[in-house]
Specification:
Blueprint lengths: L8 H8 L3 H9 L7 E2 L5 E2 L3 H14 L4 H8 L5 H32 L3 H11 L3 H16 L9 H6 L10 H15 L1 H17 L12 H15 L7 H16 L6 H14 L2 H14 L8 H15 L2
Antiparallel strand pairs: 1-2
Length: 312
């Protein structure tokens, strides 16, 4: 190679910003090989070694292993192929790190016991099939019954969480809490009881028109009163309670009498569980839906108003 410009390791270090020790390491691994040696045995490199080392440095900073780097610089594989493979591997690592961070963040907020921490981690790392099995078990338990069937298909869809492929941290934390809630025996019993009450009162027959649940009626009629700050004890509440009982009597084909008010009070008290609100808020977060309005304030108001007037 007479007449060619050759660089020593020291010159390569000055031109690339890499340490001499690092260049020697790459040279020993065959990633950037010398083209000649001096009589004293010192290595000499061709000018293209500068560009080769710049590429090596970039690939290493991006996290590629030495074998992959050597394959790229030796043109055994294209840069695009290696980059795509490495990006896919990083996606898996990022997903794992997100799950870990979500669990640790939730743990920092809740200070769980070691057993609860183990459960949180297990729920966060379930596969899609395992998540589906867990939720199917919950929905089968609370929805399937002697009065169920096709009428509950839409309800089932509206209660099913679908964690996206690349969930945000808050979606993972919401999924963990929602999964824990779905495993709670008391919560299952509460939901099952609400569904059973709803089905007993629902119109029978394939062609029977749907009618609103008492909770939906209360939300529509009492919601504006709650938003306006009207007290359930105030005289203005009398008209609202009268409208509520009259609507429920009409919808359910019952007389508007003390028996109806006791039945309505029972139904609203049974539905007034903060875990119900929590489930649907977590569900909306997991599925990326708008956050639903909280029903607890409406139910609190309705129960108090009915109790106040029943005591008169």
């Amino acid at each position: 190679m007479d007449g060619d410009i050759l660089y020593s390791i020291g010159e390569l270090a000055r031109r690339t910003g890499l340490a001499v020790k690092t260049i020697r390491f790459y040279s020993d691994r065959g990633i950037v090989a010398p083209v000649a040696r001096t009589h004293a045995g010192y290595r000499r490199y061709a000018p293209e070694a500068v560009a080769r080392l710049a590429l090596v440095r970039t690939l290493r900073e991006l996290g590629l292993g030495l074998d992959a780097v050597r394959q790229v610089v030796d043109r055994e594989r294209t840069l695009g192929e290696v980059a795509a493979e490495h990006a896919a591997a990083l996606d898996v690592q990022i997903s794992i790190l997100r799950l870990r961070r979500a669990v640790l963040t939730a743990a920092a907020e809740r200070a769980p016991t070691p057993e609860e921490m183990e459960l949180m981690h297990r729920l966060a790392t379930l596969s899609e099939a395992e998540r589906r099995h867990l939720i199917d078990d919950f929905l089968d338990n609370v929805l399937d019954g002697p009065h169920g069937g096709p009428r509950l298909a839409a309800v089932r869809r509206s209660m099913t969480p679908e964690l996206p492929d690349r969930p945000a941290d808050e979606q993972v934390r919401a999924w963990v809490e929602l999964a824990e809630l779905s495993l709670d025996a008391d919560f299952r019993a509460m939901v099952r009881s609400l569904v059973a009450d709803h089905l007993v009162e629902a119109p029978q027959g394939a062609h029977a028109p749907p009618r609103p649940d008492v909770v939906a009626v209360a939300r529509d009629l009492v919601g504006p009163a709650v938003a306006s700050g009207i007290s359930p004890h105030a005289p203005q509440a009398d008209e609202i309670v009268a409208a509520l009982t009259a609507r429920c009597a009409r919808v359910h084909h019952r007389p508007d009498d003390p028996a109806l008010r006791l039945w309505l009070l029972h139904r609203l008290e049974a539905a007034n569980d903060p875990r119900r609100d929590r489930y649907f808020r977590l569900l909306a977060l997991v599925n990326g839906w708008p956050a639903p309005d909280r029903l607890s304030p409406v139910l609190d108001w309705s129960v108090t108003a009915l109790r106040t007037r029943a005591a008169r």
